Structures are given as C-alpha cells and as structure tokens.
Amino acid sequence: MATEERAINLSQGFPGFGADPVLLDLVAKYTREGFNQYAPMSGIPQLRERLAEKTRRTQGYLPNSETEVTIVSGATEAIFAAVTAILRAGEETIVLEPAYDSYEPAITLNGGIPVYVPLNAGNFSVDWEKVKDAITPKTRLILVNSPHNPSGFVWSQADVDQLAALIRHREIYVVSDEVYEHITFDGLKHISLGSHPELRQKTFVCGSFGKTFHVTGWKIGYCIAPTELTAEFRKVHQYITFSTVTPIQYALAEYLEVPERYLSILDFYQKKRDLFVKGLGETDLRFTPSTGSFFQLASYGHLSQIGDREIAEKMTRKLKIACIPISVFYSDKRDDKIIRFCFAKDDAELLEGLDRLKNLAEIL
C-alpha cells in the first residue's frame, strides 16, 4: 500500500539507507577472486572465529567457534532451525506477546503448541509470575526477544536472572532472538542470554548480520549454542539451506576485524531515535521513547477509538506515511490503539514523515 500510495514507508523493519562502502567493496573483492562455491555447512572458519571474538568483546564470553557457532541464511532460519531441533510434537512453547510473526509458524509446523503470555501493558516488560503460571509438564521451550520487536523494550539483568531461576530445575530450553543486539539507547546495554552461565547451557542465541550492518536483503545470520544443542541445530540447518552465500561470509569475516564497525552502531541509531522522538513529541501521539531496536511505538487511543489497522490504512492513503498496527503481533489480534514506526530511515525521510504526522487529527 505504501508503494501504491507513494507514501513514506516507516512500517517495515529494514534500513532505508545503504551499507558501509567498505563492506560492499569486500563482497565485490571476494566475488571477483572466485569465492563463489559452497561454503562449509557450519560457515567458514574465519567468520565463525570473528563472531566468537565479537561475542567475547561485547558479551564477555567466548563461544567455541568450531562447535558452538553456526552461520545461517538469516535469523529467521536460525529461529526455525532451533525450534525444530528441540521441539517435539505435542510439546508446548511459551511465546511472549506481542511477538514477531515467524515464531508461531516455527512452533506449529513442528507439531508444537504455542502458549501465549502477554507482556505488561505500557512498557512491555515481562511478568515473570505469568510466565511461571504458564509452565506445564508439556512445556519444552520458551521463545524470547530482547531488544524487543515491536516495543523496543530491553531486558535487564534481573530479567535474565529470573528466566534462569525459572528453568533451573526443569527440562526447558530457550530460543533467544537477539537480532537488535547492537541497538540500545540511553546507556542501556544488551544482555545476551549466552552471557549467563546457566542459560548458556540451554539457549540458542539467534543473531543477524543483516540488521547490524544495514544489509537485511543478504539474509545472513547466526546461531550460538552449546556443543550438544549446536549438533542438533546443524542437523536441521543442513537440510534447510545447507550453507550460506560464500563471498558475503568472507567479506564479513574481514569486515569484523575492526571492532569499531559494530561498536559504532549504537551511536548511529541513538541519533536516529533521538531525532524521531523529538519530532514525535510535536505531534498529537503519545509515546515512551524506545530503549532498543529501531522501532518506536505510539498510542492514539486518546484521540480516537477506530481500529489500529484502519488508522494505519488511513495514514498511508491520506497522510502518505505508513506504519504497522500492533494488533498483528498478537494471536488474538487485540487492539490497544498502538502503532509502530521504523526509524531506520534517512533523516530527511524521517523529518518529512514527522511533518505529515502533525496533520493526524485531520483524518480521525
């Protein structure tokens, strides 16, 4: 609809700007030099080693690059392969809602049963008592996401510790979607579940080079898990994609040799977030600034009670600015009158979109 209406697209979660030319040149270099045949199923050793080192530098633990790190064709594949590796038919997976739309299909396609636990209204934090109450003898897996899509909520150390305590004496595993690991704001730090000694033994950490380096179309991600879980994960990965595009792996391996290239992502998106919320404050929408990811939620319930899908369509057609209704992230399509914007766009596009949002009252 955004394309048809020539609207500013602040809906889909992909960057509206290009990648570092250095990275693009590296891909061209390795393509020209003939690195165009199958890569090893688990990923080229150089990239797995650089990723392990990046993990040590940013999260304080060093996974074994040979037996605990796997390069895959996007974090969506990593999540699906992890769920497939651990979940058996008839078993339950706890999903915290609102949730990214690939979680439920990964569960149900493997014969599993999704059990939905709503996040706290307002700030989208986890109600750990509700999670505890949702656990049954059939619970096999908990699927979590921080920094969170769509809310931008970032887990604290207390959240990580509570999850660890909850599954300590249970045969329950975790799939942790951490694709926005390098995008946190206002001094908050992303805490990977892999950095927790107990959780590390039961967790598949799923990440994305595409989200980090503004190349989502390359579909290249990874999974970090203990040796025993990685062995099962690779059995699935081998028959989904077998291996991931070779020259891009070599390019990323060389690119990661300079830590500043991923450490600087935080400041880059902090400026984007600050620009967007400053302008959003001049509109009629209500919001709390996002603390992570490249998404910002906004509430309009004080202005109108029309459905979030309807308002998203009206904004696209009449204001020429596209957003996402949050009801699509819930299994029951609950409508809390909240919409989501993606601010991973060029500044000029963001400013124009914010200017158009000032006219929101005209379409309500």
From TrEMBL:
GO terms for molecular function: transaminase activity. CDD domains: AAT_like. Transmembrane segments: none annotated. It holds the Pfam family Aminotran_1_2. The keyword Transport does not apply. Residues 8-357 form the Aminotransferase class I/classII large domain. InterPro entries: Aminotransferase_I/II_large (IPR004839), Kynurenine-oxoglutarate_AT (IPR051326), PyrdxlP-dep_Trfase (IPR015424), PyrdxlP-dep_Trfase_major (IPR015421), PyrdxlP-dep_Trfase_small (IPR015422). Keywords: Aminotransferase, Pyridoxal phosphate, Transferase. Its cofactor is pyridoxal 5'-phosphate. It comes from the Bacteria. NCBIfam families: PRK09082.1. This is Pyridoxal phosphate-dependent aminotransferase. It comes from Algoriphagus jejuensis. The lineage of its organism: Bacteria, Pseudomonadati, Bacteroidota, Cytophagia, Cytophagales.
